[in-house]
Design a protein that fits this description.
Layout lengths: L6 E2 L21 H25 L3 E8 L5 H8 L8 E5 L5 H4 L5 H4 L8 E5 L8 H4 L11 H4 L4 H18 L2 E9 L2 H13 L9 H7 L2 H14 L6 E5 L4
Parallel strand pairs: 2-4, 2-5, 3-4, 5-6
Antiparallel strand pairs: 1-6
């Protein structure tokens, strides 16, 4: 499978409408996709051994997604063959009181992988240019000085901060790969309903899912700018989130 069509190169402009959420490439069924997944997992395990032995570079995988797009499942299945002793997964949800006492990059900075290791971010500092822009009231909880909150360049500055941060990481041997999982509004609704109607999936559903689902289009619009403004030092893979 040629992945080039799913990769946004550094500095490239992004239009989510150009990416079909139902795209599955050459795979027509789950069996074919699973066979290729197992092949790739084995190759990933070999590469991890080299990364760990060299102990020079670190690998940071950043997963962002629309709600119900399947970040947890993607991380679980793709990283199955990785040695857990050389891999750390960090899930960043609503910031804690301690985290709100620091700048927004603090909690992710202290979770960066060591040399020779793989770090996985389930959500990341990109939430600050996505969710917080859709829900600007969240800025009020971050204890930012009032004069800075009034600055019309606030979002521009955050894009610059992230670019500078990723440039710093890249210059220090941390390779960054970013993955965005896309899902259509219709498929998202189907998955939310499945969480309600399927007993073993009930734990995944919350009232917040309904509220976030109402903001689907706003999030699609907000995703374009961070992808364009912060892909200067690494590439982003836009993965479609359709179940086979």
């Amino acid at each position: 499978m040629n992945h080039d069509s799913l990769i946004v190169q550094a500095g490239e402009r992004v239009k989510l409408k150009d990416y079909d959420p139902g795209f599955t490439g050459k795979f027509k069924n789950k069996e074919g996709a699973q066979a290729k997944l197992q092949e790739d997992v084995q190759r990933l395990a070999r590469y991890q051994d080299i990364l760990y032995a060299q102990s020079t570079y670190a690998l940071l995988l950043i997963f962002q997604a629309m709600d119900a797009a399947g970040k947890d499942g993607a991380i679980k299945h793709v990283m199955t063959g990785v040695n857990p002793q050389g891999c750390d997964v960090h899930s960043f949800k609503a910031p804690s009181s301690e985290e709100l006492n620091h700048d927004y990059l603090w909690r992710t900075t202290k979770a960066l992988p060591e040399r020779g290791r793989i770090g996985i971010f389930n959500r990341s500092y990109y939430e600050e240019t996505l969710v917080v822009r859709v829900h600007p009231e969240l800025l009020q909880t971050q204890r930012i000085p009032k004069e800075l909150l009034k600055d019309k360049q606030l979002w521009k500055h955050r894009f610059e901060d992230i670019n500078n941060f990723e440039r710093y990481l890249t210059r220090n041997g941390i390779v960054i790969l970013k993955f965005f999982l896309n899902v259509s509004k219709e498929e998202q609704k189907r998955r939310f309903l499945a969480r309600i109607n399927t007993a073993e999936k009930n734990w995944k559903f919350s009232s917040g899912d309904v509220r976030q689902g109402e903001h689907h289009q706003k999030k699609v619009e907000r995703i374009k700018r961070p992808s364009e403004k912060t892909c200067k030092h690494s590439s982003t893979v836009i993965r479609c989130a359709r179940n086979l």
